[in-house]
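I have been asked to look over a protein record a colleague put together. Thanks in advance; the entry in question is below.
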Amino acid sequence: MPDRRKHRGPHPQDPALFAEDRLPALCAATADLSWLLGRGYAALSAITLVGDHWQLQRRQRLAVKRSACADTALRHRLTGRVGVADGPIVVDGFNVLISVEAALCGGVLLRGRDGLLRDLASVHGNYRKVAETERALGLLSSVLASAPEVLWLLDRPVSNSGRVAQLLRQAGFAVRLEDRVDQVAATLCEDGRALATADGPLLDQVAHGVDLVGAVVAGVEGAWIMDLAAAR
């Protein structure tokens, strides 16, 4: 069935799954998963163990998985965090854009253990422009105006990536469509460029990261943010 959504808002179950009274359990589960990951447990078995213990539903388990990280990864990400204006930036395009769209649509954003915001939008190889896309790009453009150099990377296999690239070029950005964005991003950042993404495993491959989504969402009134970081 084609994706006909006009917004990237919350899943119908999210108000119950991420209600305030669920926050203590979600924070505890994130801390437990982080502890297990730091001791070499495989991610799949660890999230199954933690999810079963805290009786989490599928989307709650996904939220905990995206929010957790081992202590070594946490130190690396925090030590390498730089500001938007501190140097050239490579933007993990769909990762960043979809999170900002979700924030504008009232979707839940998760503040992970590393302090970054992540969405729960279900976009797997198919991207559809929504009502908030152009506003999201405008907000991103405003924040990125202070960066000395910006390069957007978009996944070529994702549907409508060419249309998004056209919108970005019209806004004055350099854009590359790539078949393997993670690999290209990691290579480009070897020369000191910072990467704007909330993809944890990708951040662990680069020296410097930028909290671009956080900088944008800070100006979005009423954004739904759940902080799952019991301790950082």
Observations:
- Residues 27 and 230 are 5 Å apart (CA to CA).
- The chain has two domains: 14-68, 80-227.
